Amino acid sequence: MTSARETVFLVDDEPAVRSALTRLLRAAGFEVKSFGTASQLLLELQPQPGPWCLVADLRMPGLNGLELQEELRRRGLELPIIFISGRADVGSGIRAMKGGAVDFLEKPVSDVALREAIRKALEGDRRDRVLKLEEAELRARAKTLTPREREVFALIVTGLLNKQVGAELGASEKTIKVHRARVKEKMKAGSLADLVRMADRIELTLESVRRQAATEKE
């Protein structure tokens, strides 16, 4: 059973196709919002609290599917897209997939294939939302570190020992040990391996730390 918060946006300029697909998807338990043109979708599209995806015809009057994909990217609206098309177009299909589309289906669309593609897209969006929340939390924790603690963090995850970090920063080994303990505490890390994974998630390096410190001073 799908959640009522799982929303499928559907864009197709053919009323009969749009109506049939809307009925199909609602019967499958999805919340469906359908539009006849990409422009209509863009006027009403707002970020959703739950998983979402877009099913869009590739060839439409006005903005076509690929142009819609580019406009969504430009606006920072990240939602998985499933393209449907009445004509096989390898070039457009490749371009769509390179642009981040999760699937490309030919009309007449198989009911089973469409439902499976949508479930895959929604599950991917759900995972992405969790990852983004986790990353935001890690960045918030990193902001609680002092400039020196950030430097220590960036250096210890490269595998340097406390003594080596101290030599790099012009501090005693004992001082680095204290900073290291505070970094682990503030980042809620149980081990060095945890810190390494966290640094990788937020792309923390000594260069980025020092660049941030210089920006904060301006």
Keywords:
218 residues, alpha/beta, Arc Repressor Mutant, subunit A, 5-stranded parallel beta sheet, 10 helices
Number of helical regions: 10
Biggest sheet: strands side by side, in what order? 2-1-3-4-5
Q: Which CATH first-tier class of the largest domain would you pick?
A: Alpha Beta
Number of domains: 2
Written account of the structure:
Helices cover 58% and strands 11% of the residues. The chain has 218 residues and is an alpha/beta fold. A five-stranded parallel sheet has the order 2-1-3-4-5, sandwiched between helices. The mean pLDDT is 91. The chain contains ten helices and five strands. The longest helix is centred in the middle third of the chain and has 33 residues. The protein is elongated, with a radius of gyration of 24 Å.
Summarize the model shown.
This protein is an alpha/beta fold and 218 residues long. 58% of the residues lie in helices and 11% in strands.
Write the SSE topology.
Blueprint: E1 7-11, H1 15-27, E2 31-35, H2 38-44, E3 52-57, H3 65-74, E4 81-85, H4 90-98, E5 103-106, H5 111-143, H6 147-156, H7 162-169, H8 173-187, H9 192-201, H10 206-217
Parallel strand pairs: 1-2, 1-3, 3-4, 4-5
Helix pairs in contact: 6-8, 6-10, 7-8
